[in-house]
Design a protein that fits this description.
The chain is α+β, with helices and mostly antiparallel strands. The chain contains 24 helices and 21 strands. It is elongated, with a radius of gyration of 34 Å.
Length: 800
């Protein structure tokens, strides 16, 4: 019987190719988008990490409630790490790590490899077995131990040809010989897929006044809970006296508290809200598609009323007729789902082109058996949802339908179900349009933020040197001075400079110091500030805006703290006394005040910052951040920069080269991605809602030809007929808009974490969305309305 129903359904689809194409395309679009979204959500949020007992691996952090930390990441202090590691009961395998980049000398020169310094026990904690050699020994994580390294499987293949002889051979890493002792397994990556090299993390015991940041992992013991681990960690942390340096890092707040969070959750914490919002958006698109197909099936079912009545008269039960109609709708949906899988494959393949670079676990997004099963389930459910109501509607009162004229008028007032489906489509469309408007306006507000410098025509780069280190500071300073001098003389270079850090860069330097006379009564105040060490020309090249005083000159190089530039945030926070700050603060050494620079991102408020001159005690050492302002395209200066670096130090590696405008664009990639995705879903919803309204009104015009002909014969003008049809469509749309606005107002607060600079209940967004939907609805109504106005009364009456 099922095979018979399938063959019959295929014949029906072949007889109505336009209907079939419309339904299949609608469902393919919706099922494909949902399948692609599910593959992303499952791969990023739900797929287990490739580590042993991944559900017991936790990321540890500490916080001081009420404090203002200068470190935004989830980290421990070395004080807490050391105290907890002495006798943990709820955790095992406590390990520390720190993401790093290494300058590695290989056959064709120096290369910059991403990696991490890790505790010797971290590989065992994650369940990794070496592909060659061994991992670190416990004693190799102590001061004075031989310097060793482990290569990733990919780095072993790319740079050493998978040669087993590399094990035991020394290579130069950051200017020092390291012996390669092992190679990681092919599947292993940590802390992310870019890691190609690991060195031992030396966990030195904390000394008096010394506080360091520690990224820490642990494995919960069997049966232990996150809450138990947090309680034990908090108790251990509170046994340690906190020096001033700890306050500098974590802020002065309430008693320290330790947090434990599953590594899988911590890894995806930043992207999770956006993915959940996009999942809801694509789910709404599927609902609209189901409503659209249901409307098509309802319209098509009117023409088949006599056929179904005859079947019922010949003995077919209502359940048998419903089963046949559902078979047709599910078959339609499965065909659309097959096309949707192809669309999902294309979308997931294109995801790396559009996703931000920081998108976590992107390599785990793929179409596998589970995702294909979801596509099949989504297709089946869509077919049932789209076909059930039309099937129930068409199989009711079939005996009455036999005695009635099939072509009688079925206006919107008589077809509450169809009007309800259209209103539902409009409501969902409004919700998506409001969401798209909120995220779009938030993104515009974000990129409109003043960064505090001029990013146009600005090239930034980072020079990594194998040496010298602190023992040869003079040579390092000579390199920086020579580099800046040579760059200033380059073709098309307007200004050039160097610093220990730049906006949106990886490095972050924070100082804590006493500032005399900054208190309300003139007392000394302890100050926390981001600390830039810059050469003359850096401020001019970056485009800092001077508000008072002057920039550094070459003569300031040896004056250290007696020559300081401060940002306005530091002046507002600590130097609020009457009178000019320049020449008074820092024992008279404050020579200039500049606008605030948003170093950590456009969405992060500027913090107090000072600028010190490069030279003497504050020299820039192995990692040199270069800024070059050019007259034209900054990328044209890249070959010149490479040649200068190569001439000055052939062992140096150049990385992170690119326009500053590109750095800013990458920093806002995640909100841009979310805004584009939701806008795309809203556009699809708008298109489907318009198509549904157009299709239903076109059908109504066809069904009401006689009525329209009579109205025309009795003197109704084309304008009145157009108004009649448009009013019917707009009335349904207005009902949907009202419902949609209420739903959007209830759901909008859930977007708060994704918004910047606007509130969830944004008046402009809540006005713009219904206006757009109403305009599109009116346009969708006009074509059927104009066709109705062109009906010839005599022809319409003769056809009846």
């Amino acid at each position: 019987m099922l095979l018979h129903d399938i063959r019959y359904a295929l014949r029906q689809m072949a007889r109505s190719p336009a209907f079939t194409a419309a339904a299949v395309c609608t469902l393919a679009l919706a099922v494909g988008a949902n399948t692609a979204m599910f593959s992303v959500v499952y791969g990023v949020l739900m797929r287990p990490l490739p580590y042993r007992d991944a559900d017991r691996i936790v990321r540890l952090s500490e916080e001081h409630p009420g404090g203002t930390p200068l470190v935004r990441d989830a980290v421990l202090s070395n004080l807490t790490f050391d105290a907890w590691s002495r006798g943990p009961q709820t955790i095992e395998g406590l390990a520390a790590y720190s993401s790093r980049a290494y300058t590695v000398g290989i056959a064709d020169g120096s290369r910059r490899l991403e990696g991490a310094a890790v505790s010797p026990g971290l590989f065992e904690l994650l369940g990794a077995v070496p592909a060659a050699g061994r991992f670190f020994l416990p004693e190799e994580g102590r001061d004075g131990a031989p310097q060793v390294a482990v290569l990733s499987h990919g780095a072993w293949e790319r740079y050493f040809g998978a040669d087993p002889a590399v094990i035991g051979v020394p290579i130069r890493i950051d200017g020092q010989p390291h012996v390669v002792v092992g190679v990681g397994p092919r599947w292993f990556y940590f802390p992310d897929r870019d890691a190609e090299l690991w060195t031992p993390y030396v966990a030195t015991p904390p000394r008096e006044g010394n506080t360091r940041i520690v990224w820490a992992l642990a494995r919960l013991r069997p049966g232990a809970t996150l809450q138990q681990a947090e309680a034990e960690g908090t108790a251990a942390a509170r046994t340690v006296k906190r020096p001033v340096s700890a306050t500098l890092m974590f802020g002065e707040g309430g008693p320290v508290q330790v947090r434990a969070r599953l590594l899988s959750d911590q890894t995806t914490a930043q992207i999770r809200p956006a993915l959940l919002v996009m999942t809801a958006g694509v789910g709404f698109v599927l609902l609209i598609a189901c409503a659209n197909v249901a409307s098509l099936l309802l319209a098509r079912g009117v023409a088949r009323t006599r056929e179904l009545s005859v079947r019922a008269a010949l003995g077919a039960s209502r359940s048998r007729l419903i089963a046949q109609l559902l078979t047709e709708s599910v078959l339609l949906s499965m065909i659309g789902g097959g096309a949707g899988v192809l669309l999902a494959w294309l979308l997931t393949g294109a995801l790396p082109l559009f996703a931000p670079e920081s998108f976590p676990r992107l390599g785990d997004v793929r179409l596998d058996g589970l995702v294909l099963g979801f596509a099949a389930l989504a297709s089946t459910l869509a077919g049932v949802l789209a076909g059930l109501l039309p099937a129930l509607r068409r199989t009711s009162s079939l005996s009455l339908a036999m005695r009635q004229n099939d072509s009688r008028s079925h206006g919107p007032r008589r077809d509450v179900l169809r009007a309800g489906l259209l209103a539902g489509e409009a409501a969902v469309g409004v919700v998506l349009l409001v969401g798209a408007s909120l995220l779009g306006r938030s993104f515009v507000a974000l990129v409109s933020v003043d960064p505090g410098y001029e990013p146009r025509n600005l090239l930034v780069a980072r020079v990594y040197r194998e040496g010298p280190g602190r023992a040869e500071r003079a040579r390092s300073q000579q390199f920086v001075n020579a580099l800046v001098e040579r760059l200033r003389a380059g073709p098309g270079v307007l200004a050039a400079g160097a610093a220990n850090m730049i906006p949106l860069g990886e490095s972050s330097y924070i100082s804590g110091f006493d500032l005399p006379g900054a208190g309300p009564a003139g007392e000394t105040v302890f100050v926390r500030a981001q600390t830039y060490v810059i050469t003359p020309g850096y401020a001019e090249a970056l485009g800092l805006r001077l508000r008072d005083g002057r920039f550094f000159t070459d003569a300031d190089a040896t004056h250290g703290w007696q020559r300081v530039i401060a940002n306005r945030a530091l002046v507002r926070t600590y130097l609020k006394k009457d009178g000019p700050a320049v020449g008074r603060a820092f024992n008279g050494g404050l020579v200039g005040i500049v606008d605030d620079v948003r170093r950590e991102g456009l969405d992060v408020a500027p913090q107090p910052a000072i600028f010190l001159p490069h030279g003497g005690e504050h020299g820039i050492e192995r990692e040199v951040n270069v800024v070059i302002r050019t007259a034209g395209d900054p990328l044209e200066a890249v070959p010149f920069l490479r040649s200068v670096v190569r001439d000055l130090d052939p062992t140096a590696a150049l990385g992170q080269v690119g326009p500053m405008a590109g750095q800013i664009a990458r920093s806002v990639a995640e909100p841009r991605f979310a805004a584009i995705a939701i806008s795309a879903f809203a556009a699809i919803a708008l298109l489907l809602a318009a198509a549904g309204l157009y299709g239903v009104l076109s059908y109504h015009v066809t069904q009401r030809r006689r009525e329209i002909g009579v109205r025309s014969a009795l003197g109704a003008s084309p304008r009145r007929i157009v108004g009649l049809v448009v009013r019917q469509g707009v009335a349904v749309t207005v009902v949907g808009v009202i419902i949609g606005l209420a739903a959007a107002a209830a759901l909008a607060p859930g977007l708060r974490r994704l918004l910047f600079g606007i509130e969830p209940i944004d008046p402009l967004s809540f006005v713009l969305a219904p206006v757009v939907l109403l305009l599109v609805g009116i346009l969708a109504c006009l074509l059927p309305a104009r066709r109705a106005a062109s009906v010839d009364p005599a022809e319409a009456l003769r056809s009846e």
